[in-house]
Structure formats: C-alpha cells, structure tokens
Amino acid sequence: MKRFALITLAVLACATITAWWLLRGETWTLTFTQQQIEEHLAKRFPMSKQYLVVLNVQYENPRVRLTEGSSDVHVGLDARMEGGVFGKEIKGSADIVTKIAYDAASAMFVLHDARLLKLDIVGLKPELADEVKSLANKLVAERVSGLPIYELQPNDMKTASTRLVLKSVAVRDGVLHVVVGL
C-alpha cells in the first residue's frame, strides 16, 4: 500500500513538472466585451443589504463602461433605500471604479478594490453629503469587491493551466484583454 502511494505521488509529480515545462512562459488572452461583463454582473443583481435592522438597501441595474487604455472597469449602480428617513424611500445612483483580480481558489476573475467615484442621491442635503459618501464608499468596497465577472472552466487544459498567474489587464479596441499564464 505504501509502495502504491509512493508510485502515485511520483507519477503526479512527473506529470506536474512535465506540464509546467511544456507550458512555461505560455500566455493566453481572454477577452471580455462591456456587454459580456454587464450580463455576467446582472446575474448577481438586484442585491439587498439590511443595515441597522431597519434600513434595507437594494442595489440594481449594473452598467459597465470600459475606458480605452485603462485596466479599470467602471460600474454604475442604482440604489434604493426602503424604510429610510421617516419611512420615505430614498433613491440614488453610484459610479464605481474597480480593478480586476484573479481568485485562484475559485478560478474566477473578480472585481477588486472598488472605490466610489460619484454618488447622486435625490434630495440629499449638502451638509450630509460628505458623511453619506464616506459610508457609501465603505458599502461599495464591501458589496462590489469580489463580484465575479468570469470563471475558468477546469475541463479545458489551457484554462486549467492558467490558474496560476494574472499577467496583465487592459482595455484595447473597447474590449477588456486579460492575459494569464504560468
């Protein structure tokens, strides 16, 4: 039994080393259109989050914008807060900028390091704007960072081997180019 385990371990080690040797330095480019990213994110929305037991915030209608030459993904969201001030519904929208990261454990490309760029809330008093924007920035980082935009399929040898390193991300010709490799 011990001998079988050692032989199996040796075969797996040889296969891994051979695959690495054959594929080292190889890169593959995955491309995503603005519409593909938007459609993938739309599967996660609407999403709700309850705050302070009485406030329920609904995030919906994700809109994606890619900027030529940038590695950022801009996401717009609508937000609705039910049970707000004096039971009045509050509506607004947020523009967010985020990076792309690779989560090796789940083999997914995810939104990462989300930051609030702009916040518009209907009827927000100017004296509350800075405090609300600060809170909204924390909520954006919590709710948007980690959202997947693509999952590698383990049955494809190329993509299975690319689970190791994200090399670069850039928008060219209106399409997000993600380069991965060993």
Number of strands: 9
Average per-residue pLDDT, rounded, comes to 77
Round the Cα radius of gyration to an integer and report it.
21 Å
Treating each run of at least 4 consecutive H or I residues as one helix, how many helices?
4
Tell me the structural class: alpha+beta
State the separation between the terminal residues, measured CA to CA.
34 Å
Question: Can you offer a commentary on this structure?
Answer:
By secondary structure, the chain is of the alpha+beta class. It has a domain at 34-149: Bactericidal permeability-increasing protein, domain 1 (Super Roll). The chain is 29% helix and 45% strand. The protein is built from 4 helices and 9 strands. It has helices at 2-23, 34-42, 129-144, 157-161; strands spanning 27-33, 47-51, 55-66, 73-82, 90-103, 108-121, 148-151, 165-172, 175-181. The strands form 2 sheets. The chain has a 6-stranded antiparallel beta sheet with strand order 2-3-4-5-6-7. A hairpin with a 7-residue loop joins strand 4 (73-82) and strand 5 (90-103). The longest helix has 22 residues, at 2-23. The radius of gyration is 21 Å and the shape is elongated. It starts with a helix and ends with a strand. Mean pLDDT is 77; it is low at 19-23.
What keywords describe this structure?
Bactericidal permeability-increasing protein, domain 1; 9 strands; 182 residues; 3-stranded antiparallel β-sheet; alpha+beta
Summarize the structure in short.
This protein has four helices and nine strands, in the order H-E-H-E-E-E-E-E-H-E-H-E-E.
Secondary structure topology:
Elements: H1 2-23, E1 27-33, H2 34-42, E2 47-51, E3 55-66, E4 73-82, E5 90-103, E6 108-121, H3 129-144, E7 148-151, H4 157-161, E8 165-172, E9 175-181
Antiparallel strand pairs: 1-9, 2-3, 3-4, 4-5, 5-6, 6-7, 8-9
